[in-house]
Structures are given as C-alpha cells and as structure tokens.
Task: structure prediction
Amino acid sequence: MSGPSPDAGPDTGEERDLLAAEYVLGTLDAAAAASLAVQAREDPDLAAAIAAWEARLSPLARLAPPVEPPPGVWDRLEASAGLRPAEVVRPAARAPAPRRRFWQEAAPWRWATAAGFAVAAVLLVVLLTRPPSGPHGAAALLPTSGTGGFLAETGPGGSLQLSAVRPFAVPQGKDLELWALPPGATQPVSLGVVPHAAQRLAVAHPTVRLTAATQLMVSLEPRGGSPTGKPTGPVLFAGTLED
Amino acid sequence: MDAQRRESGQEMAAAALLRRCAGGDAAAFRTLYEEQAPRLYGLALRMTRQPALAADALHDAFLQVWQQAARFDPARGPAEAWLTGLLRYRAIDLLRRREREQPGYEPPDAPDDGPDPFEQLRAAGDSAALSRCLATLEEAQQRLLRLAYVDGLSQSQLAAKLAAPLGTVKSWTRRALLALRQCLEP
Result:
C-alpha cells in the first residue's frame, strides 16, 4: 500500500532519507506526510531515518522561548487520558472530557443550554435507578451541541444496547453511526448504523471488548454509514462506559 | 558547562519518565508534562501564532505521549527530540487544516529574529554542532530551514515568503538538508 504521494516513487535509500528529512522539517504536503508516517510504522529503517532527522533538527526548537501553558491544558489532558478517578455519573461535568480526541471537527461542546442539562438529568436518573446488573456497564451519550441523548448498556456476553432518550431528527440522506474507542486505542471501531425508525441498536457481538472507560460516540454519516470505516461526519453524541 | 549538565540531566529524566509512562505511571506523566510542556508550548505558540491552536497541539501531543510512550525507542534518538517531533507533527496537522479551511490565511509575521537568529543555539551545549553546520549554509537556506521548522510554514507558504517558485524552494530545501547531514556526519 503506497500512499497517494508521487514523491514516494524511487525507493532508494537516499531518496527515502530525504523524504524522512522533509517529513521532519514539515515541508511535505499533508498526503505525502501521512503516507510516510504510515509506512514508518511497518518499516524500521524508515522509522530510524525519521528519528535520526528528529535528533539532528530538534535543537532548532530552542529558537522558540518556553512559555507556561494555560492550566486548562492539563485539566483536559487528565480527562482525555482517563487519569481522573472514575466517578460514577456526573454527566455535565464529565461529558466534555473526551473532547478533541479525534473528532476535532465536531462543533464545540455547548453546555449552557438548559435542554442539555435536562437530558443530562434524565440520563443521570436512568443510570442511577437501573437495577444492579452485575458486571455490566452503561454510558450516557450526551449531545456535543443541541439536544437529545442516547443511553448505552452492555449486557451478557459483551452485547450492547443503544437507545435514544428522545427521538432525534436525522437529516435527510444521513444516518447515525455508533463507534467505540476502547481505552488506549487510537482508532474508533464501528458498532453499526442506528436504524432510523426505532433509534435503537442492539449489538449482539461487538467487534471490540466494551470494557469500562471505553468511549462511545454517535456520528452523523452518509446514508448507510461511513464509507471509510472511520467517522467522517461530526460526532453528535459522546460518553464513556462506566462499570 | 552547568547548562550542558542540566540539559543532559533533563534528557535522561525525560527518557526514564517516558519508560514509566509506557508502564501506565500517571505520576511520571505529570512530571514529564511539568518539565516539558513550557518548552513544547512555546514552540507550538511560535508555530501556530494562536494560543487556542497551540493549546490543542500541546494537548493532543501529550495524549499521544500517554497512549504511545511504548513506541519511544531510546536506541533511535533522544527522548526530547521524540517529544518535539510529536508536538510539531500535531501542530503542522492543525496548521495545514487551517490553511485548507481558510485559504489565503496569512499567519502574522514571526517576531524579528535579530541579526543573529541562531544565537541561542550557540549558547546551548547540545546544539553547538547544528549551529556550526547551519553557518556553512547560504543565508537563504538558513532562513528557509528556520521558517519551516520553527514557524511551521508549508512549502507553498515558503514559496510565497521567499518569492521563489515551488520547485525551486523544494530543491533548496533538499540541498540544505543534504548539506546539513553531511556536515553533521562527515
């Protein structure tokens, strides 16, 4: 699988070393850079060439004086890296945590809406009042903006049930798709397209183990689901599985 | 020489902290962040010229550090260079995205580097060799490397800035990099 880069042509050591150098410098176009980064995962020689250029050029970074980062960055990091002690449910406080994991294009979280809090409250009640269900988990998928929400519950044999808290108007020609991102994973895995009419989805045998701290999200995709196997549209709802 | 000793101490610390991060040690991650974030945020800020974008780059890069610390291979290079790489790739992604979304966006000019832009490098122990080798390059090549590495300019932004055709900029870049490699590793 070679990437779309026309530069990746001649596979001589010298050409590859220059590509590695341009990659580190940042002057490859986005497609060529992405393709080289993928190749480097499979090719230890290329990875070594990149590391050698990183080492050669990194003293240049000193030209930028250190600046104390805003404290919010660490707070966000603690949340997104899952470093906070697991609290059972505090949807309004927890929900912004998974921000910016890989759906950076999604609209910013807008929590100030009363509707958002109302749904959060409903989900909170649902989560707190559901019967003790052994080792099973649940997640409240809250809206990244706007209203609505989904509740996800895991069941026996690793199955998962997703249901809309209230009907969500799916735009014409679009579908909602459910994704899971287990802790430590970098790519979300599709759990399926949410049927329009029922707005419920039962996944009997998910392709990933839905352990606690797995992030679940619902994205807006073209009819029939993402054509690429990865979320292509904005993430509309997101939450984290809790035990 | 004190500065040099402190630098190599920090480098060793960063490598050890990364190893502990790979084992899931959250305290080590926090320490690594405290030690490295100001340096990396300063770089992100210089590259993006936007505090929000710089904060995103820093956040994303450190999230990657936490998730992929096991990928760091000390045999291949120093830990700080690896961290710098993660931050820069992330900042570059964000910059190129902004370029796509706001075509024609002109980043504000970089602060004036003064008559000797590489002065800081000579003062630092680990970068003496690089600064000596940079000095052997033509001035235009030095400027090009600085604009690309520190200011995050893309190939087309470089062409506009240096008022040269894209192909010419590309061959200048490659010649500068080759000369640098030859000088650093004769």
About this structure: Chain A touches chain B through 48 residues (CB under 8 Å). Residues 45 and 162 of chain A are 45 Å apart (CA to CA). The helical segments of chain A are 13-25, 30-42, 44-57, 72-80, 91-94, 114-129. The longest helix of chain A spans residues 114-129.
